[in-house]
Request: fold
Amino acid sequence: MLGIVEQGLILGLMSIGVFVSFRIVNMADLTVDGTFALGGALCVRLFSLGLNAPISLLLSLLAGASAGVLTGYLHRKLRINVLLAGILVMTMLYSINLRIMDGPNLPIPKSSVSSSLGTYEQVAGKDPLADLFESSAPVAKPQKETTRQRTYQNIFRGMADGQDLFLLSVIILIGVTLTGLFLRTELGTALRGFGTNPSGLESFGLPKTLMTLLGLGLANGFVSLAGGIFALYSGFADVTMGQGMIVTGLAVVMVGEILLVKKKIVYGLFAPILGGIVYQGILAVVMRYGYRIGFRASDMKLLTAIFIVAVIGFGLVSTNKRMKGKFRLSTIFGGGVSRD
Amino acid sequence: MIELSHVSVVYRKGEENEKCALKNATLRVAEGDFVIIVGPNGAGKSTLMKVLLCELAPTIGTYTLNGRAMRGFSVTQVARWVGRVFQDPNSGIFPDLSILENLSIASKKGIRGLRFRSCPQKAVTLLSRLGLGLENTLNVRAGDLSGGQKQALAMVMAIISDPKVLLLDEHTASLDPKSSVKVMELTRQINEQFGITVVMITHNMPFAEQYGNRKWRIEEGEVFEYEYRPPLRRTHLETPVVLLRDQPHYEPKLV
Reply:
């Protein structure tokens, strides 16, 4: 049960990113699939290189944000459709992630094992065979370990004792608070305005490019952070871990919005978190009991996609009478086409 | 103020279907003028508007605003001196944001910082002068307002930060007659009391006769001036101050 909430919170954090791109900036950003894995890969790599977990997470957040900025740049400056720009960056990230991990996946080394490249003497005392060769020339001593020994512990313990849950809640609380505060500022308000009327913002002297970069950077920063946390939490990073994340994230956002009906808590940022926990709960139930009616775990993506189609098709998340029944269809099916 | 000298705009230049949308237009608008532009569809009215907004650079000729040559300026840069309101009531406002947030975005030009948003007293005072009651519903979503209210809000937003010129492209076209009159009266007030130069495109002939001190007709890219009166100008520097003093103190509430 605790695990479901914890994973739900990570999913929620990731979906905040999807929420920012789809709902606040109103752009269908597909970079997300790549940035989630980027966050995981980079975080695990940095962690195993000896950085502590918070700094690894922070760096992966920045890397994710720059991937988002790149998508925004491709879209605005090179006039590539935002969907295509997202797919391009996502594809680039696939190769980059493989490079970062030097393979398709990378486990987090346990702290006790990873640092044990010390000399034999350090580990076992005197060499037991040394007596045999006393007369001969002294054996060349094994080279001393030159790499820095990692002393940092993974911040997630992977035990169901509530500590991980506490930590995740704190991270999410900080993330939501900072973003909520940002959206209250002049720049944040302008960003929200940009989502509803990009051209209108130009008449107040704010360039579209800047707002696009800002919005997509923020969104992908969240996703990448969630990817890093997920990797630390589960003990490994995998190049396919981001696959289908955009669809899952969108479903999570919609679940949250349906549950909260019209209440927009902290500009709606709360919806993805609630949605994440509920979605993870549904996932667990389907995994546990679904086999009785013939479901497999692999069917979940199909179900998720059908769920999104149903939600949009029937206009369940309409918050606005005018848009009822066609809730921002443009966002999903080519919102980027008409943006210029 | 605005000077166009020998401006021509040619679309698809050099191609077979080349079209000359503006022909050798030489126009001069003085500060405080209220220019009405009429003309049939496709005559070049919107092209002229695009040139004034720097969305389109003239193929030949120069555009000068306030003594500054406007070549190479972007839409966002020119926004510092030019406010605009278009036909679609949703194009001038941010529908998903509250009225207060809309005013807060509009009350500043250019890049914003991380200060918490605020809504200047002037914006609320202006809004209360409209007599639409919008100042009491600052937390209402702008998208939920009626067309006339949206357009009025858009005009207030366009002039809060004291532009030199206000460009209006058929801004009453999608409104009912009653709202249109209200919005036109607001336009007149903006011109007379604030001294903001107004350039307005309209298809509504009664409005074209009733308002404005200069009337232009555009036909097939050529601009003719068919009426000129000296502008009704008040000392626009003192008016807003009096206006603020007369209003009861109003504390805007943040969302």
In short: Helices of chain B lie at 45-52, 75-78, 99-106, 121-129, 147-160, 177-194, 205-210, 239-246. Strands of chain B lie at 2-11, 19-29, 34-38, 60-65, 68-69, 82-85, 165-169, 197-201, 214-219, 222-228. The first strand of chain B starts at residue 2 and ends at 11. The domain at 31-58+73-246 of chain B is CATH 3.40.50.300 (Rossmann fold).
